[in-house]
Amino acid sequence: MGIRDVAYRLYARRLETSLSPEAIPRHVGVMCDGNRRWARSAGLTDVSGGHQAGADKIFELLGWCREVGVEVVTLWLLSTDNLMRPDGELGPLLRIIEDTVQELVAERWHINPVGALDLLPSETSRVLKDAANATADCPGLLVNVAVCYGGRMEIADAVRSLLQDHATRGTTIEELAEILDVEQIARHLYTAGQPDPDLVIRTSGEQRLGGFLLWQSVQSEFYFCDAYWPAFRKVDFLRALRSYAARHRRFGS
């Protein structure tokens, strides 16, 4: 082990010991951005190599989250807009997502797919739904796998579900308009029953939300990291937690 490796480990350890257990976010959302740019910067002609490197990074992140006591992690792996990518890129990416989810099942993580799964190819949708069923009783960290996810679509789906629910009970539109509130909509979101994200991390240097957890992130703290997702390190994660712990959360005030 070289001097640089030793210094890195010491620094990571110092960051970790400086974190108070009371200041650890319960729910961390991660926008896993920069796989293609990482692949190009690494000289790879096939960007699927970047997607695979990004998939491998997921397992490291989950280990870090479990170590510090995070309860819920939401990983944005594929947006609804990503379905418009060329078949030559989308197909391999979907296969990587399927393989990754099956590995997460094998490791007994509690998987909860979030997104418009019925818009996905049947095999990808089946893998995600099977993962949810197979790990429903797994204890510990809950992993929301956001595939074919868009914040606006989630809100539209929640409202549609709410309307259908009330229609089956015979509620009129006028009656619903009188009683409708934000809590009723929240109960129909993909993440219903979960705590909202305390911290949202976006890699690759981009500083925009891009439609990620639009409803749930209204009170979230944000941390933007310049590293591409496959190059995201434990010290980057710990710095995000340190930044979160140092903030005075005003919850909209």
Description of the molecule:
- The protein is α/β, with parallel strands linked by helices and 253 residues long.
- 47% of the residues lie in helices and 13% in strands.
- The protein has nine helices and six strands, in the order αβααβαβαβαααββα.
- It has a six-stranded parallel β-sheet, with helices on both faces.
- β3 (110-114), α5 and β4 (142-149) form a beta-alpha-beta unit.
- The mean pLDDT is 94.
Key words describing this protein structure:
253 residues; alpha/beta; Undecaprenyl pyrophosphate synthetase; 2 domains
Task: Give a quick precis of the structure.
The chain has 253 residues and is α/β, with parallel strands linked by helices.
Here the CATH topology of the largest domain equals Undecaprenyl pyrophosphate synthetase
CATH superfamily of the largest domain: Decaprenyl diphosphate synthase-like
Main structural class = alpha/beta
Which range best describes the helical content: under 10%, 10-25%, 25-40%, 40-55%, 55-70% or over 70%? 40-55%
Quantity of strands, as a count: 6
What separation lies between the terminal Cα atoms?
49 Å
**What is the 3D shape?**
globular
Number of domains: 2
Note the main sheet.
6 strands, parallel
Residue-averaged pLDDT, rounded? 94
Kindly provide the radius of gyration, computed on alpha-carbon positions and rounded to a whole number of angstroms. 19 Å
Work out the helix count: 9
Stretches where pLDDT is under 50 for at least 5 consecutive residues are none
Percent strand equals 5-15%
What is the H/E order? Answer: HEHHEHEHEHHHEEH
CATH class of the largest domain: Alpha Beta
Which architecture of the largest domain per CATH? 3-Layer(aba) Sandwich
Strand order of the largest sheet: 3-4-2-1-5-6
